[in-house]
Amino acid sequence: MTLDRRQLLGAAGLLAGQALLAPRAQGAVRLSASPLFTSEVPRTLVLLQLAGGNDGLSTVVPYADDAYGRARRATRIETRDLLKLDDYRGLHPSLPRLKALHDAGKLAIVEGAGYPTPIRSHFKSYEVWHTADLRGRGAGEGWVGKLVGAAWPENRDPNLVLHIGKNVPYSLYSLTHPAASFATPTGYKWAGDVASRAALERGGEVCEHGEQELEREPANNLEYLRKVLRDGQASSETIRKAAVRYRTKTAYPDDELAQALRDVAALSVGQIGSRVFSVELSGFDTHSDQKNRHDALMARLDAALPTFLADLAGTEAGRQTVVVAFSEFGRRVRENGSGGTDHGVAGPMFVAGEAVRGGLYGKHPSLENLDDGDLIHTTDFRSVYATLIQSWFGVDAQRVLGAKYPLLPLFKA
Description:
The chain is of the alpha/beta class. Helices cover about 35% and strands about 15% of the residues. The chain has one domain (about 45-190, about 245-400): Alkaline Phosphatase, subunit A. Strands 1, 5, 6, 7, 8, 9, 10, 11 and 12 form a 9-stranded mixed sheet that branches. Strand 3 (about 85) and strand 4 form a beta hairpin.
């Protein structure tokens, strides 16, 4: 077999989909952290993206606002069907278990989450939410990547950040701490083929021109590639074992999101070294037939997320886990002519867990004072991120986000 330098570097990149081959950019600062933990089990964060642009007005419904009834016909949810939170708003009728979590003080609803000068493009708004920066990818690493570099700069555990699903979100992008990604833990295996792994283990063989690869490849790069191999193999073995050994307390639905959260529970309880997990529920781009499609998505969310929290309830891992659900934007106030809604701006975020101080946060956007037909955000979504960074992980949020945002009292004392 021949193996050139390009193949060696490519093999290393297969580990996580985010190759750690470039040195830290000149002038970059490695931040220090001061986590305030009182448990031997570390605090973790589970990010749940509602991908496609969730219609906030069909999730947290302002039923008492006459403007809602005027703007919505085909997509309107009748007051009698809602799960009322107060005399103005109610949850979608397919969210009874989330309503129970709210009533038990374990679900916080942050209303009107968005950002200034909003963008209605999926891709651009996605970048803003995932970098916590209006420049999007031009800002560099994802916000979780920056958090990890600040909180655990010396931690090179390959399981530190995990995404369970098909597409690794940009929020996890890091120059120093690449995320591992897989569809199912039991099927997770380092992706290098047999020949590539063997070549890395041997330290390089003869390349096509006859030179020794060891002579052409700097020793530190070669050692790095060997470490990628060792870490990748050890990581996949650890993850597979934790998933197989786990015995859930609850019955998860046979649903992609529910099974992904079941895997998060297994890996959290298994204590494999992960601090941030990421999962996704897609399908929220409801330009047409929204009523049926959104109803089904709400039912899936209600079946999966509360089951996950119930599974972890009473465990130390459960006490140390918080879930944040978000979408890249909301939908427009007035529905379109196809029984759906088009790309909008602000929408609700959900924060759930044993440590969460449940309730309503922020202010529901006005349905009368609009910006070209769109809701005007009332809470900068980066306030939620800042609260997670500083109040949950004990890291200076300004140093991670590059600016100061008001903190929310989302966590119990």
